[in-house]
Design brief:
CATH superfamily: RNA polymerase, RBP11-like subunit
InterPro entries: RBP11-like, RBP11-like_dimer, RNA_pol_Rpb11_13-16kDa_CS, RNAP_AC19, Rpo11-like
Distance between the termini: 55 Å
Keywords: DNA-directed RNA polymerase, Nucleus, Transcription
Order of helices and strands: EEHEEH
Number of domains: 1
Pfam families: RNA_pol_L_2 (PF13656)
Largest sheet: 4 strands, antiparallel
CATH topology: Gyrase A, domain 2
Structural class: alpha+beta
Number of strands: 4
GO biological process, one term: transcription by RNA polymerase III
CATH class: Alpha Beta
Organism: Suillus placidus
Length: about 110
């Protein structure tokens, strides 16, 4: 069975208590980077969060999280991923519900 590479890697230089760390997230782009940054920054215990795409030819993002009071940036990342998943699931459910009940706006394209 072939081994798979990890999806997320903690980069060198993280604080020993993980209160500040940079994570590499592989096979992702600005789409999840900006959504994760937004979700993480909603947490009042987060001091800083930012992401970058190191190079356009590399299919990865780097996400930096710094926490107040020595809290774990890893736990914050995992919580943000779960919250983002929940938001996406809610949107999908509302979308399917509106389709099933024909409760959506219709637009007619005019030339």
């Amino acid at each position: 069975m072939a081994e798979t590479s990890p999806k997320i890697k903690i980069m060198a230089g993280a604080a020993p208590d993980l209160s500040a760390a940079t994570f590499q997230i592989f096979d992702e782009s600005h789409t999840i980077g900006n959504a994760l940054r937004w979700m993480i920054m909603k947490n009042p215990k987060v001091e800083f969060c930012g992401y970058s795409v190191p190079h356009p030819s590399e299919n990865l993002i780097q996400l930096r999280i710094q926490m107040y009071d020595g809290l774990s940036s890893l736990n914050t990342l995992l919580e943000a991923l779960a919250n983002l998943d929940s938001v996406c699931e809610t949107i999908e459910n509302k979308y399917h519900s509106s389709l099933a009940t024909n409760d959506y706006e219709r637009w007619e394209e005019r030339s």
